[in-house]
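[User] At your convenience, examine this fold.
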Amino acid sequence: MDWCRLWHDMPTDPKWRVIAHKAECSISDVLAVWSFMLVCASKAKQRGTLEGWVDEDVAAALDMDANAIERIRTHMNGKVLDGVLLSGWEGRQPKREDGGAERAKAWRNKQKTTGERERTQPNASERQIRVDTDKKETPLSPTETSPPNKNSEIDSVVSLWNGFAEQVGLKRVQRLTPKRRTLVAARLREAGGVAGFIATFDQIRGSPFLLGDNDRGWKADFDFVVKQSNFTKIMEGGYEPAKQKPRKTTRGEAAVAGIARALSGEAGAPGCSVEPAANGTDRPAQGAIEGSVGLVAEHDSADDHGPHSQTAGNSGDHKTEP
């Protein structure tokens, strides 16, 4: 049986999240495509390359859209692909194949020196077993052997920000300074990892104010976002658009509405009574209309003369102080 290797931290490698975000698909889709790439590279005549790869065939096998496969493959370039070559293949995968005879001989030599009685598949066919003859493999680079560290998460955040900034018209990060690294590392601890930053970017996307819809045309940048107080406020929805409160009805508008109800004879209008007209139809009582008109007159008078207007007695005359 032919086989290829996976490194232990492959499923949790933060590169998949970055690729998934850029390709607008799920992390599980990215991992599925990568698994197909490993198998393709292992079966290829020139091992480690995507010889014979066809996006449409892989899409059919995974029940995905061919365009999604192409986007994933494109955004893998520079991270796990170098053109058609899988990055790190030579370091992670076996360099040669041992036949059954050579393996049996190596096992007998080991028995002589260690006295061990364990033996595995001495008669296996040539392409059934793939092992390295020397246990001292070429050391891998730290990025290939180490588990995901804080620096890789910081780089992922910056990469995600630059992609997001291009979409919404904000400034990209051109240089990752030590100060910025320190701030991003602190926010990663507070937000629970890269996922917290993605949620924060979604909050910014929904805030017109942070995107420049303000009286100064100011827009949020990376340094503003990673500052602790700003980051917390964004995460808690502090920059969400304010909901409009219903406008209160003024006294003048209420009075006009009262006149309209009185003239129409609407039941329940304040001070409105309906009396029979000469022709047998109902009409609102004169007092109701006069009362409503008086309210409007009083309101208009107060508006015209300002806070110094006074009403003298009950005669309806007004005196205005200078």
